[in-house]
Design goal:
Layout: H1 7-22, H2 31-65
Helix pairs in contact: 1-2
Length: about 70
């Protein structure tokens, strides 16, 4: 996972890749690389969401204990 890549910037890049893939001008020679990058970005986003969910659960649990 790229440390300096924000969730928002990863999402924007994913949207850009998707638009490129859906375009009539999609470069078939770059399709595998675009798919690989999209997979990396999805993994990064999923990891951030999982981490955030765990943190929120912890925060909410500590509020219930108080």
């Amino acid at each position: 996972m790229e440390e300096n890549l924000t969730y928002e910037s990863a999402l924007r890049e994913l949207e850009s890749i998707l638009r490129s893939m859906q375009s009539d001008q999609c470069d078939i020679d770059k399709l595998a690389a675009m798919t690989r990058r999209a997979t990396e970005l999805l993994a990064s986003c999923r990891a951030r969401l999982t981490t955030t969910e765990a943190e929120l659960r912890q925060i909410l649990a500590s509020l219930e204990e108080a």
